[in-house]
Automatic annotation (TrEMBL):
This is Molybdopterin-dependent oxidoreductase. Keywords: Molybdenum, Oxidoreductase. Residues 108-345 form the Aldehyde oxidase/xanthine dehydrogenase first molybdopterin binding domain. InterPro entries: Ald_Oxase/Xan_DH_a/b_sf, Ald_Oxase/xanthine_DH-like, AldOxase/xan_DH_MoCoBD1, AldOxase/xan_DH_MoCoBD2, AldOxase/xan_DH_Mopterin-bd_sf. GO terms for molecular function: iron ion binding; oxidoreductase activity. The keyword Oxidoreductase applies. Pfam families: MoCoBD_1, MoCoBD_2. It comes from the Archaea.
Length: 649
């Protein structure tokens, strides 16, 4: 195997560490034996993997940190070696011999048909004026964050100090506590600025848990820096197939969709993600258009890496299906794609989503303009990106241990700074700056600091475009209460003066510390549209030329940051639509500036019904981007209903 080193600055984590490397399976399904010095199943078998979701409806067996005798996917960790540095650890892998015996049969003997979950809503006889069949395949992408996974574990007395590149420090703390069977107050999770997450670091994977468990058991300080090869080949997401029967009228009205869904979970389920993307897909399919959805869904295990989270988390799959259906109806009825969408949009959308008519109007005008300019190769997507599921959804419906709220602490320090503390971590979204701006606006005061990655507050980190909706609004509520308390000290709210007063009686400073929590009472969404223009060169290669995005983002902390988020997500969708394929393994390709189209971003600012008026946008553009790109491919006359769309193969 060719190992690609991820050069990470070791100075950022103080202390002496030995380095971990994993012996990985070279076959996707095989019995194996290991000869040589390595830590294997026997060394970690006592550690049980906790989850945040209810497993009672799933037919999957408990899967250990390291397999006992059979590898179930290529690159699966089979054993662990420890070296003085990364290179020494890699050298020690070469000293270990692994013998394989290829295996045919189910992934797990306990699940002979490989199906671990079934769901459906049943259907009677359905009919319409017209019907067509369509199959949509959404294959795997790798989140490919700039920084791979990194974990460093230090034993310090009875304390376990874990430096981790994660989006969910408090959830990791909870899971590690349960796995090691030690109290949470003996565990510290320290999160630096994270070099990208994209959902990849929403979960904690078996490799990270293995390093933590081994460090704890051996009482050693251990560090693991994931290589890029490991990152791409073991951190993957998406993987759904939709076999559709679609009923529609000559008027362009969609009557029903009968959907046979196959969700490939990979070899096992991760502690946080589980099969939640499937439920997000089902919810998103019905979010915008008025029709009847009948479905039968199965979740299967396979000899692929476990499917985790990736930006969009089930939304891109749903929007691709629905937007392909809209274009197919348009093609069959000769009604324009925009008009077909207008015909089918619900009269009243669920939740708080913004100005639907304004978005459709702007999308329509831009579409007509681009038709005049380019003629063909134009694809549309219209969608609602819902964000921040509340506890009603998370706990009651999905039976998760993770609720939907986020808590924030606001306090005044003795130097006159308002400190905002949150469990959110920074993956480059500049959410700390956005929170600082909305708090500064609320207070009319500029000395604001936002401290991220705190684990002594009730909160659950970064996922589901929830950061500004939950933590941003909790920060507003907290500083409003802080103002009420501070006014009793100085009616003019001179924070510098209040700090000087507190310096005389610092023991009273705790009175100027407020923790507030927030979750949305209803789903808050961002109604949006995209148009992608592509052409084909003389070699038959498809090139994206132009990408228009219109989104009702509500009140923002920073418009430029939001535009950057939208452009970045759209480029990820374009990249995933025709370049990225995990079957390419170490030749995996992602889009660069050379493949990027010209972007035009238009924002609307209808305030949400929340204290700050914000909406979640982190997953917005990637959710609708695949559909717009694939529709543009089909508009060129090149039939393609799959991701990635490899026209030359």
């Amino acid at each position: 195997m060719g190992w690609t080193i991820n050069y990470v600055d070791d100075i950022t984590i103080d202390g002496n560490y030995e380095y971990v490397a994993f012996i990985r399976s070279q076959l996707k399904h095989a019995k194996f034996s290991i000869a040589g010095k390595a830590f294997t199943y026997e060394d970690l078998k006592e550690f049980k993997i906790p989850t945040v979701y209810d497993k009672s409806s799933l037919r999957i067996p408990d899967v250990p940190l390291l397999p006992k005798y059979k590898a179930v996917y290529k690159f699966q960790p089979l054993g662990i070696v420890i070296g003085n540095d990364r290179y020494d650890a890699f050298d020690k892998i070469e000293e270990v011999e692994v013998n394989y015996e290829p295996y045919e049969g189910p992934v797990y003997e306990e699940v002979p048909d490989n199906i671990i979950f079934k769901d459906g809503n049943g259907k009677g006889e359905v009919s319409s004026e017209n019907e067509f069949n369509l199959r949509v395949d959404f294959n795997r992408n790798a989140p490919y964050s700039m920084e791979t996974r990194i974990v460093a574990v230090k034993n310090q007395g009875d304390q376990l100090i874990i430096h981790l590149s994660t989006q969910i420090p408090t959830v990791v703390k909870m899971l590690v506590s349960e796995m090691l069977e030690i109290p949470q107050n003996r565990i510290s999770i320290i999160v630096p600025n994270v070099g990208g997450g994209f959902g990849l670091k929403q979960d904690v994977n078996y490799e990270e848990l293995s390093v933590i468990a081994l460090a704890y058991k051996l009482n050693k300080n251990l560090k693991w820096v994931e290589t890029r090869t490991e990152n791409v080949m073991t951190s993957q997401a998406r993987d759904q197939t939709h076999e559709l029967r679609v009923g529609y009228r000559n008027s362009g009205k969609l009557d029903y969709v009968v959907d046979k869904i196959t969700y490939d979970a990979g070899a096992y389920l991760l502690p946080f993600t589980g099969i939640s993307p499937l439920f997000v897909t089902l919810g998103t399919m019905k979010s915008l258009y008025d029709f009847e959805l009948y479905y039968d869904a199965i979740v299967k295990v396979s000899n692929k890496p476990p499917q985790g989270a990736y930006r969009g988390f089930g939304r891109p799959e749903a929007i691709l299906v629905m937007e392909r259906i809209m274009d197919e109806i348009s093609k069959r009825t000769k009604i324009s794609p925009i008009e077909v969408r207008k015909i089918n949009v619900k009269r009243k959308l669920e939740g708080d989503v913004g100005d639907v008519n304004a978005v459709i109007d702007k999308l329509s005008k831009k579409y007509e303009e681009l038709r005049r300019i380019y003629g063909k190769g134009i694809g549309i997507s219209l969608y609602v990106q819902y964000a921040a599921p509340n506890s009603e959804i998370m706990v009651k419906h999905e039976k998760s241990l993770i609720p939907g709220y986020e808590c924030v602490r606001a306090r005044l320090d003795l130097d006159g700074w308002i400190i905002i503390e949150t469990t959110l971590t920074n993956q480059g979204q500049r959410m700390d700056n956005s929170i600082r701006k909305i708090v500064s606006k609320e207070l009319g005061y500029d000395k604001i600091k936002v401290e991220l990655g705190k684990t002594n507050i009730n909160g659950y980190g970064v996922w589901a475009s929830r950061s500004m909706l939950t933590a941003g609004n909790a920060a507003i509520l907290a500083v409003r209460k802080l103002k009420e308390i501070a006014k009793k000290i100085d009616d003019n709210l001179d924070w510098e003066k209040i700090a000087r007063i507190m310096r005389q009686e610092p023991w009273k400073l705790k009175e100027l510390s407020v923790e507030e929590c927030y979750e949305t009472p209803e789903f808050v969404g961002t109604v949006s549209g995209q148009i992608v223009v592509v052409n084909k060169d003389e070699l038959g290669n498809v090139k994206p030329l132009y990408n228009y995005i219109i989104a009702d983002v509500g009140i923002t902390g920073d418009d430029e940051v939001v535009k950057g988020q939208l452009m970045g997500g759209a480029l990820q969708a374009i990249s995933g639509s025709f370049l990225e394929n995990t079957e390419d393994e170490i030749e995996y390709s992602i889009a660069t500036i050379a493949e990027a189209p010209k972007f035009e971003i238009e924002l609307l600012h209808t305030p949400s019904n929340t204290p700050s008026g914000v909406r979640g946008v982190g997953e917005n553009s990637i959710s609708g981007g695949y559909a717009a790109f694939i529709n543009a491919i089909n508009d060129l006359g090149l039939e393609c209903n799959k991701v990635p769309c490899r026209l030359s193969k």
